[in-house]
Amino acid sequence: MKAVTYPQPGGPEVLQLVDVVEPSITQDELLVAVEAISVEGGDIISRNSQYLQAGESLGYAAAGTILAIGSNVTGFKIGQKVATFNWRGAYAERRAVAAYNCFPVPDGLDARIAAAIPVGPGTAAWAFHLGQLQPGQTVLILGAAGGVGMAAVQLASRMGARVIGTGTRPESLEKLREFGLNDAIVVGDKQAGEQVRELLGGNKVDLLIDTIGGAALSDGIEVLKDGGSAVLIGILAGRNQMVDAEYLLLHRITLIGCLLGPEWGEKQIARDLVNELMVMAAKGELIVPIDSTFPLEKVVEAHQRAETRGRLGRVFITV
């Protein structure tokens, strides 16, 4: 079968489509014929910084059709459409995935949209679960135009929160108003935190959702009200940001790390959230905008597009 790998970390040009052996499954796994792949930020981080093991292919998120079922697996059937997650193996014609990382796709839902839901919207929903967002509260979303950010805007708005989002492009943030964004903060000459304090008249944010990391995390923490919470999702802007421990202590700030993938194997509520999001998407209550779609043999072009600044929507690969 065809799969995407790379000989060493680097830019999109390192990606290669090669022939590999079709995966076998364990008693707890499903074998899925991949139809659509969502290009995730984690894919780009992995390609830039991590080596693949022999026989591994790139990719987190894909949707397709079940071809085989492990002997211990219940609740699925051959021929069923599922969205799947794993740390490797999405960019291939077939993938073996633990059953607890597979989610039924409702009838009529585009396979591309289904592929995107577990990682982006799923992470946003889990962040709000961890941060215990309540109606009437104010949430600040750093990087609101990204895959997680756009879902977070929609979900927070549906929950009755005031939604403030940051980004580098005014036009992208303006488009997010139709998804529920109340206030747009353009990051540039002024730091986001300073602009948020001017908007709200002080430190009045209840919950921070940070999809960026780096200096943006420290800046965002300092607009939280006393007793507020910050949920860290992304580290694209830096892995080793210093956080003022005294500030956290004095202002009773809770800092939470959010990594959804491991939770599916341990917590039913994490799986239930993704299943609910699938239903919402099928009903048109959750929108995953499509920026562009490429065939598997155009994977280099797909990653180049995914790294293009200013786009609004997901990049997909079809098999």
UniProtKB/TrEMBL annotation:
PROSITE patterns: QOR_ZETA_CRYSTAL (PS01162). InterPro entries: ADH-like_C, ADH-like_N, ER, GroES-like_sf, NAD(P)-bd_dom_sf, Quin_OxRdtase/zeta-crystal_CS. The keyword Membrane does not apply. Keywords: NADP, Oxidoreductase. SUPFAM superfamilies: GroES-like, NAD(P)-binding Rossmann-fold domains. It comes from the Bacteria. It comes from Candidatus Pantoea communis. The keyword NADP applies. This is Zinc-binding alcohol dehydrogenase family protein. Residues 10-317 form the Enoyl reductase (ER) domain. The lineage of its organism: Bacteria, Pseudomonadati, Pseudomonadota, Gammaproteobacteria, Enterobacterales. Pfam families: ADH_N, ADH_zinc_N.
